[in-house]
Write a structure and sequence with these properties.
about 750 residues; 28 strands; about 25% helix; disordered N terminus
Length: about 750
Amino acid sequence: SLDVGMLSNRKMTSVSPTHSDGSASSSKHDNHQVLSLQDSWEIIEGLKGNPGNIQEPEKQEGFLLKRRKWPMKGWQKRYFLLEKGILKYSKRGADKDKLHGCIDVGLSVMSIKKKTKAIDLDTNDNIYHLKVTLSLFDDWVSKLRHHRVFRQNEIAMYPHERLLFHPSSHLSPNPNDSMRQLQTSACLKKKCNHKMGMNSSTVLAFTVSILILPQLLPFICHPSLLDLEECESYLLELNLLLKSMEVLHRTYSAPAISLMVTRNICPLTYNPNLGPVHIQFLDLPDGSRPLVHQVSNESRASIPDSMSEFFDAQEYQLTSSSSENEASDDDSYISDVSDSVSMDNGYSNERGTPLPPLSPPAGSGGSGVQVARRRTTLPSPQPSSSSVSLWNILKNNIGKDLSKVAMPVQLNEPLNTLQRLCEEVEYSELLDTANHTQDPYQRMVYVATFAVSAYASSYHRAGSKPFNPVLGETYECDRPDKGFRFIAEQVSHHPPVSACHCDSNNFTFWQDVQWKNKFWGKSMEIVRIGTTHVTLPAFGDHYEWNKVTSCIHNILSGQRWIEHYGEMSIKNTSSDACQCKVTFVKARSWSSTVNEIEGMVTDTGGRVIHTFFGKWHEGVYQGVPPSAICIWRANPMPVDQDQYYGFTQFAVELNELDAALKPLLPPTDTRFRLDQRCLEEGNIEGAEEQKRRIEELQRGRRKVLEENNVTHKPRFFKKSKDDTWLSSNVYWEQRKNPRFSREDFPVLW
C-alpha cells in the first residue's frame, strides 16, 4: 500500500556534522560521524505534507549495475530508464522496447549507502539492488528522489490511478490510451450489468477479451510470429490492465477479483518457442480433471520457516565478471542446464516404465520410546501480534545484520531452529525408497524430491519465527514409526551455527546451517549457507546439495508470503553417473507462476534422463503432463492450522514432552526451554520474562568463558578438516548407558 511505500517519512533525519571552533576532539568525532553515516544505509524520505502541483521531472537513463536475483551470481550491467516515477530496465540501450522488468519507485522503500554507491528499491514483490559509478551516484539519487516524490504525489492526488502505468512503452506509448481503455471498460461494465445481468468478474473477463486477447491469441496459435520476450511484454500489459481495471472496479463497490489465480487450468500445452501456455477452461461435464501443471489458488499469506535468526547478506565485490556478457538474471528462471543438454529421454519414465512404490519405514534399531498417542493440536492458539510495530523495530536496520536485534516473543512460534531442522526429514520415506531403488537415475529423482520437500512446511508459517537456540542447546527426535532418530546442537554462537544428524537403516542425513539476511524496507532476503549431505548404504551413494534463497514479502503490511528461488545442484560424490539441477522458479509480476520447481536428471554426457516438476508446498510429478506420475505430495494440514502457527501435524508433535521420554533427555534439550513452553501454553508475559532470563544466562556463561580464555566445545558434534560439523557418534550411547543424569551439563534455563 501507499502507506507502507511512504514509511520512509518516519526515518530519523541525518545529522549534519558540526565543528566547534578550536576543538580538535570535536572535529575528530564529527569526522568519525560522517564516515559512519556514509558506511550505513540511509532511508530516503518521500512526499511530505499535502499533495499539490509538482513539476514532472526529466527522464533519466543509462547503464547501472544490478545484482542478479539468484545468490552468488554477482552483478551485471543493465540499461535503466526512469520516467514519470517508473523505473524500467533492459539488457541494452538499443533494447528499450524489450522490457526485462520495472517497478514503481513511488511505492518503493528507497535506501542508499554512500560508501559503496549502492541504491536499493524495495517494493512488495521485487527488490532492486543497484550500484552506480562514483561520478553518477549523486545524479541518480537526486533523480530518483524527484521521481519518487512526483509519483507519490500523483498517487495521493489520484489514488484510483496508482496502478495505471504500462511499462511496455512500445505497447502503450501514450498514457491517455490506458485511460481511454479503462473508460471503455467502465462503460462496458455499466451497460453489461444493466442489460445483461452479468456479474462483476464476468464483465472484467469480457472487457479483457475485447481489449487485449485479440492481440495475444494469434501469437499463442502461431508462436513463430513473436519471440518470448515480446510475448512476456504482452502478458505484462494484460496483467497490469487487469490490476488497473480491478482498482476502477472497486470504486463501484463491486467485489474484488483474484487476478490470474485459479485452479481451472487446462492441461499444460508446451511450445518450444513460447514455453508453457495455460488457457482457462470450465470443468469437464463428467466432473473429471486431468493431472496438470496447476496454479494454486491458495493464499500467499505465509512467512517462514526455518529462519531462526536474521543475518546480514554477503556483500559481493565488483569484478570484471560483472559484465554484460554474462547470462541475464531475468531472461529465464529455468535452469541453465537446459542450454547444454539434449532432450533425449532414452531411459526415462516418460517411456512409461512404472516407478517403484514407496518403501515402508525401517526400524531405527535405537532405544526409542514409543509414544502411545501423539498430540494432534497445541495447548493454546497463536496469540495476536497486532500490538507489535515491526517498523519501529526494523526502521533503523535497513541492510544491516539483524541477528542481534531483539524481537518481541509475540513474533515467535513455539519451536526453535533445531526443531525446524528436524522438520526437513518429515518426508524421510523418500530416502527409504531411494535406498531400495536400483536405477541410479531414479534414485536421484527421489533424493531431489526429498530436498524439495524440506521447504513444504514453510508455506503456512504466517508471521512467526522460531526461537534462536542458545549455545549448547540440543534437540533429539527418536521416531521408530518413521524409522529414524535425529539429533541437533547449537555448536556456535558468533556466528550462530546449528548442526544436525539423522540416521536410519536406509540413510544418513546431516548438515550444519548458518543464515545470512538483509531487510530492505518491505522484504527480507535470506541466504542459507551450508551443504546438506545424504548417504544411502545400499549403494554407497553420497549426495550433496545447496539450499536456495528465501524471500519474505510484505513484512510490514498486507499478507506476508514467502518464496524460495534459485538453483539447487545435487551431485553424488561417490559416482559421476548422473547429476541433478532443480530450479525454484521466482515469481514474476505478470505471471501466475508461484512456488514452482522444475528439475532434470542428466547423465555424464549431459543427456536428460528424467524430468520432474511441481510446487514445493504441494507435490512433485515426474514426466510430462498430462501423463506425469506423482512422486510426492505434501501431507494435509491439520484442522484450524491457521490458528496454531500454521504448524503441520509433524511440527505439532516436535515439542511434546511425554512423561516416559522426560527422564531420557539431557537437560539441554529444547523441550525443557521455559520461554518456548510458556508461549506454547499461551502465556506471553511468562514467555517474555523467561526469554530475557535465558538470554542473560547465556551472556553470563559467555563472559566466564572469555575471562578464562576458554573456547566452547560442543558436546555431540566435532569440526571436520573442511570446517563442517559432524556428529561425534556419542549421543545415543550416552543416552542409553549410563544416561544423561550422570553427565555434567551447563545450566541453560
